[in-house]
Amino acid sequence: VNLADRETALRCLAIRSAVERVPLFVQIVKSKHRRHLEHLGRTLLLPVEELTMGILGRSCLAAGFSTLVTNLVRTIDKNLTSDVAWEAEYAQGASHEIFSISFRSGFVGRSAIDCAQYIYAHHGATLIGIKSQHGPNHCKIIFDANHTISSGDIGYIIANDVAIAWDIMSEPGLGRVRSSSNAPLPMDLPDMMVGDEPGCTSAQRLRPIQNEDDTPVPQVLKGSRFATKPRSLADCTLEAVDFSGHIVVCGPVDGLFSLLLPLRSRRLTKSAARKVVVMSMSPPAECLWLKNVGLFSDTYFVLGSPMHDLDKANGRGAETVILLSDPERIKDNFFQDATNVLTMRIVDGQVPFAIAELSQETTIKYLSVSEFSQTTEPMAWHKDPWYKRRINLAGSFPNYHFNKYFACGKVFTSSMLDSLLCTAFVQPYIIELIHSLVFSGTSADHASCLVEIGIPETFPGKTYGELFEFLTSRGEVPLGLYRAAEVFSAPCDYVVTNPPSYTMLNSRDRIFVLASTDHSTEVVRTQLTVSTDP
Question: Cα dist. 457→33, 278, 441, 512 in Å?
Fold first, then answer.
């Protein structure tokens, strides 16, 4: 049992023995340990390792996904301005959050796609999920284009102000806002709280991907591709990699099941399932390999360090390189990040796309010495003297969101999950919704899959509003753009969440899309395709 989880479980038991009805918001490292807390009631669980690995895995399919998710969870001032065009566009997207709305009679009987088109066209908000209160889907949350709105359904939208959510639902006969980021915590919490609703446990709430014995749950077995027979470490070990277009994962093996799962979804064609090479400084235990990596096909192991031996894994020919933190090997978070920062500075520019996992957000600035040593103000932070003094004293940005490595999705900090838990205090649905986005398409009963697609051939020069209408007509909902650097001469590509309808499209832009599983969608960056192949 993970020691941190054991201590957390004991603290929760102590609190619950003292007060029965106080809500508990709990981080657990290993999701399988949730069973120790399920019986406590009114407890909201956040599986740290599962979400972290899943976000990194999804980022291999959709560059910038980690930034998209982090910006949705963190609150950014929507009034931030800049004289630099790309910074202003990025800041506008980063200010968006997720809000919950409840539908009234005006939407009842209409399809989810009709509602998404209406909400974006009239209010500039994007409907990304619906929680049905009826039928077999009452515990589902991910967007389903074919769903028909029923009385009592709850919708989840991306908007940059809670006032937009109020406006949507204040129209005659439409509905009302259920929760907002600045609303107080209700004493009678929604049914996301574990133990309050019979027949819907925490395992159902977070759509578990593994059983207590670390085997995949049946729905995941049906929705993802696994090897016919688990492959041993010896069978998967290579001296050197002689293929290209693969994904290299550098770090410990424990927890990689959650990272690999999005990469082996049956919603992706077989040709799109990239080979994965795991590189570690020491061979993992056979049992860890079998339950985390050996279950999947086309997975390999190379012994070595990414700082010195990346050529053994053909890093230059890889599509993506992921640098994981190793808390078991280096206990101090700062020095743990130092290793990944140094490695990232070495490999960045030598590989097509690299993603570094960092424990502390304050270490992101060290990825670029030139940016860290800048004396000019990169962002016009309200022209407020307090911000200017802070910049001058700290010698760095007051907020890491605007570091170019973060803006383009090349770094993910696990401290984002702290913000996710804090956000859940006023938005209890947020953990379930993010979990559903991360692992969309990995289960047989998922209605949609989050992918990244290229701009259709006829759309460069057209507006995002026109693109939104076109994609929704095919049952697909765009969440935002992975903006090409050349549009505004930015230092890198960057994420723009829920752009305004007048945004002009570039041929090199890419789109974050929740694609219905019965639609085929080409993904330009990785040449992936959403499909229903058996």
Answer: 48, 36, 26, 17
pLDDT tens string 242-292: 999 999 999 999 889 999 999 988 887 776 789 999 999 999 999 999 989
Q: At what angle do helices 416-424 and 48-61 cross, to 10 degrees?
A: 110
Main-chain phi, psi angles of 466, to 5 degrees: -65, -40
The answer to whether 379 and 89 are in contact (CB under 8 A) is no
pTM confidence score: 0.86
Average pLDDT over residues 461-470: 95
Within the chain, what is the greatest distance between any pair of CA atoms?
67
How many other CB atoms are found less than 10 A from the CB of residue 517?
A: 23
pLDDT (0 to 100) of residue 203: 35
Phi first, then psi, for residue 218 (nearest 5°) are -55, -45
E strand intervals along 48-190 = 97-103, 126-131, 154-159, 175-179
What is the edge-to-edge ordering of all strands in the sheet holding 411-413? 299-303, 276-280, 247-250, 320-323, 354-358, 411-413
Read out DSSP for 279-333? EESSPPPHHHHHHHTTTSSSEEEEES-TTT-GGGGTGGG-SEEEE---TTT--SH
Q: Is 5 strand, coil or helix?
A: helix
User: How far, in Å, CA of 128 to CA of 86, rounded?
Assistant: 25
Query: In whole angstroms, what is the distance from residue 128 CA to residue 407 CA?
Result: 22
H-helix or E-strand containing 451? strand 448-454
Amino acid at 484: A
Closest CA to 324 of 297, 346, 357: 357
DSSP string, 30-61: SGGGGGGTGGGSSEEEEEHHHHHHHHHHHHHH
CA dist list (Å): 58 to 97, 236, 432, 478: 20, 23, 16, 16
